[in-house]
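pipeline/complex-builder :: batch 7 item 3
reading input block
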Amino acid sequence: MPGAEPAPQEPPTTKGRSTRQRLLSVATDLFAEKGYARVRISDITEAAGLSQGAFYRYFKDRRDLMLVLLQELTAEAFDFVRVPRRADDPMYSVLRSTQLYFEFYDRHRALFGLLVELSQTDPDVAKIWAESRRVFYSRIAQSLRREVRARRLRTDVDVTVAAELMGSMTEFYAFQRFVLGDGVVKDVSLDESARTLAEIWTAGLVRPA
Amino acid sequence: MPGAEPAPQEPPTTKGRSTRQRLLSVATDLFAEKGYARVRISDITEAAGLSQGAFYRYFKDRRDLMLVLLQELTAEAFDFVRVPRRADDPMYSVLRSTQLYFEFYDRHRALFGLLVELSQTDPDVAKIWAESRRVFYSRIAQSLRREVRARRLRTDVDVTVAAELMGSMTEFYAFQRFVLGDGVVKDVSLDESARTLAEIWTAGLVRPA
Amino acid sequence: MPGAEPAPQEPPTTKGRSTRQRLLSVATDLFAEKGYARVRISDITEAAGLSQGAFYRYFKDRRDLMLVLLQELTAEAFDFVRVPRRADDPMYSVLRSTQLYFEFYDRHRALFGLLVELSQTDPDVAKIWAESRRVFYSRIAQSLRREVRARRLRTDVDVTVAAELMGSMTEFYAFQRFVLGDGVVKDVSLDESARTLAEIWTAGLVRPA
Amino acid sequence: MPGAEPAPQEPPTTKGRSTRQRLLSVATDLFAEKGYARVRISDITEAAGLSQGAFYRYFKDRRDLMLVLLQELTAEAFDFVRVPRRADDPMYSVLRSTQLYFEFYDRHRALFGLLVELSQTDPDVAKIWAESRRVFYSRIAQSLRREVRARRLRTDVDVTVAAELMGSMTEFYAFQRFVLGDGVVKDVSLDESARTLAEIWTAGLVRPA
DNA sequence: GATGAATGAGCATTCATTCAT
DNA sequence: CATGAATGAATGCTCATTCAT
């Protein structure tokens, strides 16, 4: 019981809150730039224009800050999957939500990068990522089930597995493009990729008339 | 004394070669267990029953050892994609090579884990992984093209993109299962997954009669 | 601006005085509980329900506070040794003042603990303790001399040394019981100890008839 | 389980053992000079002519080294109390063992100082000191009981308490002289003190004829 | 009088790496 | 070939202290 409590989630003053936010923000940038392993506390505080000691008013350590970032990501995530479908165009909602997903991934590429870098090393990160995928996949599965009920999809395929595969593909493709920065093989526009992706999925899943 | 070279690729004596091999082997296990970032040189030498200093007779540093491992992986990789197809059953070769891929991935899960953990941080690793994916994807693309020529596949889809998506899905699914150790959502046998995967792809890509 | 004095002995307002007193009081408790070395300023202010900064309105630093406490102790100390003796019972006054000493020590155990912990390190504390012992011992020596004059004590023993030994024994015994919290070997009531102590001393010092 | 085991008790090579010994030795001196709290690891290694890092090959931290010192002290301690008594001179053995005790205390004054400084702060040190006192006191009690059986001592006094008091006095007197460096009040030779001490004890405890 | 923010020196500790034996 | 000792740079973390509000 070494005294002063670890680090309050929300500083009482405006200045405090803004400083904490600044630390989170510059840390995100640094993680994106050099990867988690190569960012020192002093890098973060320096970039935030603070002394080293200031860090510890807001976070227990570097890992603590990182977990905060990832939890914020998870909290926000994946509402976009709910896209109104069009009765006439079953492909539309798949395409649209894929696009939205790519946008979201792009905007938070730094944090998705962290999930991937650290999941093998840090069990808590692994848990966060697993949970985020679980949510993602079950949203997809839900959509698929709706389509199955509407008799627009094949029924001879395990919906859960299909959702996982679809999600895997989407996420990993995003990871390659936005985090690793690949083209991937030849430069294909993101929209084109999303379209091909949607096309394959729908063509493969939609029950032949 | 023209300067003893730092770390010979192949030690002259039998004992030396075996020691080097032991280091590579225990390091692989440790990387699999804790991830690259958390494995110290001393962990490796301790697990190998050696003193710390011994490490440097065989490798320049931890990264050197790791790159050796990854290069060995790349050298061996992806011949299995060449599976003879059966004229009557276009799904067969997809299914078979997916299974072979999963087996290969499982056997080398530790090294695939390294690729993922380090690609954002280490350009050389990124290059190795990119190359490995490039090979993998173009093998798939090649197969697809063959099928297109044989008029068994849709022609309205970009084969390159399709191959990337197919590869992404397969690789990431393997990563989740073998490296992260997920079920994923519910426990599905690997074979079942491979089958669903193949099914979707073929159903989606095969031109409707 | 001739420089605001660092820490006024007596704050002007009632609130100020009470806050200062609270700091002294909780600090005493904390010192008793964990020893001086393990108590941080933040521990003290936290226990007092104040912010860290508030401390410096009242004390220069932790050592300053501690010296205030010890000086208060010294100011109060050792009047109790003056116990009216009874002509018929020379043991009575020894016993009585030993009991009173134990009570006093018990009440201020935290501060006596400070004296012991810090005397080797802090010359000022050493001085305070030395002075306190000097007073204690000379009070005892004075008593002894009175008894010698009254021909109730052996005259072949150096009174000064005897007083020191007697004092040493009493103080250290108290230290063990009240600060270290020992039994000591078997659990003996404090009164019994005081009685044995007095008995030995008188029996040893009183001139055989 | 962070790898390399904490610190081997006995280094395998002569050089290692001598280095470890040097660290223990200079640390003892530094503790004596400045007190435990003020000695940094770097002080110790510097005095030993080593780099900071070398320290951790032999000890987990400063506290670990200190406990080793105190355990060595305890292991060695208090055999000297066994002094052959002389039938004709009951005072002799008391005097002699007191002298031996003083010599021992003087030689290890630095470590006895540690016991006193740290007992209130560190439970393990408290335990070591308590144990050392227990041994010391029970040796004295044993002696006293022998004398009681030989009918040379008063029987109306609790031997255990008497032993504790006698030990307390002796130890604390030594502490004042050798650690605090007091005279105490006036400068009295150590031998004279020991003599007075023995005299009082014997005169007080020996049964009047 | 009191607070929360910020500072910065101080220090322990880790760990890759070198080297004599 | 292997070991144990030693190095020293890197870095995290603590905590007394100052200060604007």
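note: Residues 20 and 58 of chain B are 6 Å apart (CA to CA).
queue -> next item
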